[in-house]
UniProtKB/TrEMBL annotation:
It is an enzyme of class 3 (hydrolase). The gene is aguA. It catalyses: agmatine + H2O = N-carbamoylputrescine + NH4(+). This is Putative agmatine deiminase. The active site is at C358 (amidino-cysteine intermediate). The lineage of its organism: Bacteria, Pseudomonadati, Pseudomonadota, Gammaproteobacteria, Oceanospirillales.
Length: 370
């Protein structure tokens, strides 16, 4: 089957739905960092971190890394042979947000959603310009896989949503209802789009994402489903920290909600790393451009252990704070007893504005057409 763009028929109407991240995968998709106004010192430190993430996930499933042509040989040399390097041009390396949201059908078919993308706010607070190459990534992956591509009528990044695979979706009002994404849309209108596109039945709205998260509050940095009815969330005990109030709001929203099956949500708290701040030497290696988000010495980073990737047999988590890394790893291992939790030094990814979940996108298990 050839890749087809579908705009006049919804995924729900055709029987497609978005599986949970903890459901079985066929592959994981990533992009290669090289942008000098995002990644310091020509992205060399970030590239090493991406290699470690890709290597860890490749223990569990096939990993594809999309690379701009001028970085192809460098990426192929650095990445292990089991990781597949493919030429996909991009403006930056955030596959979670610029890549497809994959859908599956009960008969085993695979499809994808092509959301609108404006670099986290367009000209009103967006993180870089232009984003034309990023807009074409989903089309290219649909062509490579030969699967249908449903075009969606709203701006939405993959990190803005988490689903349990049983009809429930987590998101934040700060992001999805932000005027720089979808001006004029209210909760009811957005929920209709989410139901028709992802075949979910209930949206659990959290007020805000993590403090100073430059994505305008992506939920994947604050909380996520780890199993049906169970959520992991970043937690701050320091009442003087602005993150404390955000966590209390989110906890109240989660504990007062039920999922699509009527279950009360069980919340597992992960300690917040840090607070973490950009050091002088880290900021000095980044190109300063008027069209990109500034990264200055002393700026606080939105570090979170929730920004992990759930693979088939591994969970790949960021190592961010030696005082709390092991505690977070132990909690995650308890939540995923059948998967091996692998910690990867991830400060270089955080310096670019995100973390492990932000640079990965799972491709669920399916029976694709030949």
């Amino acid at each position: 089957m050839n890749a087809t763009a579908l705009a006049d028929s919804t995924p729900k109407a055709q029987g497609y739905a978005m599986p949970a991240e903890f459901a079985p995968h066929d592959a994981c998709w990533m992009l290669w960092p090289q942008r000098p106004d995002t990644w310091r010192f020509g992205a060399k430190p970030a590239q090493q971190a991406f290699v470690e993430v890709a290597t860890a996930i490749a223990e569990s499933e096939t990993v594809y890394v999309g690379v701009n042509d001028e970085q192809y040989e460098n990426a192929r040399h650095q990445l292990p042979p089991q990781v597949r390097v493919v030429e996909i041009s991009s403006n930056d390396a955030w596959m979670r947000d610029v890549g497809p949201t994959f859908l599956t059908h009960p008969d085993g078919r695979l499809a994808m959603v092509d959301w609108q993308f404006n670099a986290w706010g367009g000209l009103d607070g967006g993180l870089y310009f232009p984003w034309d190459k990023d807009r074409r990534i989903r089309t290219k992956i649909a062509e490579m896989l030969g699967i249908p591509r449903f075009t969606a009528p709203v701006v939405l990044e993959g990190g803005a949503i988490h689903v349990d695979g049983e009809g429930t979706l987590l998101t934040t009002e700060e992001c999805l209802l932000n005027p720089n994404r979808n001006p004029g849309m209210n909760r009811e209108a957005m929920e209709r789009v989410l139901r028709d596109t992802l075949s979910i039945e209930k949206v659990v709205w959290l007020p805000r994402g993590c403090h100073l998260d430059e994505t305008d509050g992506h939920v994947d940095n604050l909380c996520c489903f780890v199993a049906p009815g169970e959520v992991a969330m970043s937690w701050c005990d320091d009442e003087t920290d602005p993150q404390h109030a955000i966590c209390r709001e989110a906890l109240q929203a989660l504990e007062s909600s039920t999922d699509a099956k009527g279950r009360k949500l069980r919340v597992h708290k992960l300690p917040q790393p840090g607070p973490l701040f950009i050091e002088e030497d880290e900021a000095s290696g980044i190109d300063r451009l008027s069209s990109s988000h500034p990264r200055r010495p002393g700026d606080r980073m939105a570090g979170s252990y929730v920004n992990f990737y759930i693979g088939n047999t591994v969970v790949v988590m960021p190592l961010l704070d030696p005082r709390r890394d092991e505690q977070a790893r132990d909690i995650l291992q308890g939540l995923f007893p059948d998967r091996r939790v692998i910690g990867v030094p991830a400060r270089e990814i955080l310096l670019g504005g995100g973390n492990i979940h932000c640079i990965t996108q799972q491709q669920p298990q399916s029976r694709r057409p030949r």
